[in-house]
Amino acid sequence: MENLNLVKNVIVVLSGKGGVGKSTLSVQIAYGLKALGKTVGLLDVDLCGPSIPKLLNLEDCTVHQCDQGWVPVYSSQDKQLSVMSIGFLLKHKDDPVIWRGPKKTAMIKQFVTDVCWGELDYLIVDTPPGTSDEHLSVIENLRKQITGAILITTPQNVAVADVLRELTFCRKGSVPVLGIVENMSGYICQNCSECIHVFSKGGGEELAKQENIPFLGQVPLDPNLAMCCENGESILDALVHSNTKDAVLNVIENL
Ligand code: ADP
Fold it and tell me: Quick check: CB of 141 below 6 Å from ligand 1?
């Protein structure tokens, strides 16, 4: 694990379901930490649905080799965020990755051992939804380095129930849980400032209380954020300047 020797903290971002904003929040947390002066890397282990290259507008980037291994891609707007994703290794960005478990495990091992991360305060690991080969590989390969996991949910019961499974997974794998974030938690009306709870309310917070783990905060629904991610325009600006920014910084403070 020489390539990880200089990485101080590894934070794994998990969710029970897809579409709850795990990748978006991984990027926002990475940028939030960077804004606080930390050196940060972002590892996307969602092998079948890598979205980090698109979110960061790095879809055309490829990985280069050096004597020590793979050189991560650096985010175009700010050279200090190093990023690794299978998306950078595909011939065509829309190529599907149809792999069985052992191949996925080998790929993740390579991400951990062969990428020259250098000196980092934080390595944020964005995972696919659920608890599958990718998650087991991350735990197996990074066990000693993992600082903890952040669990992302939306507020409604059906998503929260899945987070409980992630929590059990962490406990069984002896991964410390840093806390739960409730994303898409209410929409603040631009006209009357009333908070509309589109997807129910408070499920993540309740679960945190019930399970005696920290609640890291709520992040509101922001149509501008969704729209910019959708259009592939000014994504970074949207991630950094959207209404969700303060909420994400609050999450980071609570870590
Ligand atoms: P996951 O990684 O959990 O599958 P994504 O990060 O890809 O989820 O987010 C799914 C969709 O939800 C994306 O279109 C993203 O722009 C949008 N999204 C995520 N968080 C928010 C938010 N707080 N407000 C509005 N849209 C959001």
Answer: no
ipTM of the assembly? 0.99
Segments in the chain forming alpha helices (H): 22-35, 52-55, 101-114, 133-142, 157-172, 203-211, 223-231, 235-241, 245-254
Instruction: Summarize pLDDT for 194-235 with one digit per residue, the tens.
Output: 778 887 778 899 999 999 999 999 999 988 887 777 765 556
| pTM for the predicted model, two decimal places | 0.93
Q: Hey, where are the domains in the chain?
A: 2-183+200-217
CATH number for the domain whose boundaries are 2-183+200-217: 3.40.50.300
Binding residues: 16-23, 189, 192
CB 11 within 8 A of CB 45: no
CA gap 146, 12 in Å, rounded: 7
